[in-house]
Amino acid sequence: MNVAQVRRPIVPPTPPRAPEGMSFLRRVAVIRKNMIATWGQRAYEEDVIKGRFFLHNSFILNRPDAIRHILLTNYENYTRTPAGIRMLRPVLGQGLLIAEGQPWRHQRRTLAPAFTPNATANLVPHMTAVLDETIAKLKTKTGEVIDLREIMQRMTLEIAGRTMFSFGMDKHGATLRNFVMEYGQRLGRPYFLDMLLPVSWPSPMDFARARFRKRWTAFVATLIAERRAAGKKEGAPPRDLFDLMDEARDPETGKGFSDEQLVDEVATMILAGHETTATALSWALYLLALDPETQDEVASETRGEHLDSMADIDRQKFTCAVVEETMRLYPPAFLVARAALEKDNAAGVEIEKGDIIMIAPWLLHRHEKLWEQPNAFIPKRFMSATPPDRFAYLPFGAGPRVCIGAPFAQAESVLALARLIGEFRVELVDTGPVIPLGIVTTQPDHSPMFRITPR
C-alpha cells in the first residue's frame, strides 16, 4: 500500500531533535530526563552512526540486516550493558528479561508452555471480567474530565493480578503502583557513574536500589504466599499464570523454579504485563482522540459485539493495526543496548570486543529510509499485503529473546481498545502537546485529560 494515497494523516508531537555536536556532559544530563531527546536528525536518516562511549566505540544501528545479526544470528555474543543491568536488576532480579546464558535458556524453556496461544486464550476470561468492570465504572463518569492513563494503569494492573493470581488487586494495587512510581522517578534513571563503572563496582545509586529491591521482593513474596494459601483443587487444570509457572518444569532437565527464582519471574511478568500495556493503551487512546475518523473505524469494527474470546479478538483486524501503529510510534521499549563480548562483523559493521551496540526502536520505527511518512499515524500501513521488514519493527524485540508475553500483551491491547472505543467516544480536553519521554518506557510527559461520551 502506498500510504501517501491515504487521507492526510495526523502527525503527533515529538521532542525537538538534538543539535549536532551536543557535548558529552550535556548528553549525559539529557539522558536522565529523556533519552529520545539526545538523538539528532542524522539518527533518523543514516544506517549506522558510529561514536565513542568512554574507551569503546558505540554504534546506533538502523539497518535491518545488521540488527538481524545482533539479535538473531549471533545473539550470544551480545550482553546487557552495565547501565542496563543496573536499571533492571533491582526490580527484575535474575528473571527472564535480564538473565543471560544457561540460566536464561533454562528460564525460557521452562516458561514457554505458560505463554502459548492456547494458554493465552484460557486467560481471556480474566481480561474480559476486568474490562466489564472498568466499562461499568466509566459509564458513571461520562461527560466528566478524566485521566484515562491512570484508569488504564489500574485496569492493566487488575488484569495482571487476576491472570497471575486469580485474585483482584484492590488490597495491593496502591502499594504496587507506589513501587513502580518510586523506581521510575528516581532509581530507574541512569546516572553518570552508572554508565562509567563496571557492574561489579557499585555506584552510589546502587545502594538505594539494593534497599528498594529488599522491600520489593518482600512484597512480591507476600503476593505469592497469599496465592499459595488460596490453594488449588487436586487434579484441576491450571487456573492462572501462577499455577502454570509454579508447576512448570524445564523439558530438558525436569527442573522447576526455586522460590527465589519464582519471585523474580512473577515480578517480571507483573511489571512487563502491566506498565508497558497501560502505556501502549494510553498512547492509542491519545492518538484516536487526535484522529476521530480512525476512532470511528475502530468503533464500527466491533459492531456492538461483546468480545470475549481469542476468535473475537482475531477478527478485529483494523483495531490490531491501530495497536501496531501505536507501538511503532511509541514503542514501549525505546532502546535496546548491548555490549559485544568478542569481536564481530554485523553485516559489514566491524565491532570490537566491548563496543556498545544501540538498537533503538524509537529511531528504527521513524527512520526515513524504512517508512513512508514515518512520523504520521497511519494504521492501515499494517494491513498492507507487504508487511514491514521483521527487523525494522521491534515493539517486542526479535530473535530468541523476543518478548515471551507478546501474544498476551497483543491480545489484551486489542481487546481493551476495541471494547473501550466500541462503548465510548473519546475526546481530548487538553489542547497542549503531549511529548514522549524515554525513561524506562516511552512515557508521556504528562497525563492528558479526556472526556468520554457513550456511543
From TrEMBL:
UniProt cross-references to SUPFAM superfamilies, sorted A to Z: Cytochrome P450
What this protein needs as a cofactor is:
heme
PROSITE patterns in alphabetical order? CYTOCHROME_P450
- Pfam families, from UniProt? p450
Q: Known Gene3D superfamilies for this protein?
A: Cytochrome P450
Keyword Metal-binding listed? The answer is yes
Protein family according to the UniProt entry: Belongs to the cytochrome P450 family.
The name this protein carries in UniProt is Cytochrome P450
> Which species is this record about?
Bradyrhizobium iriomotense
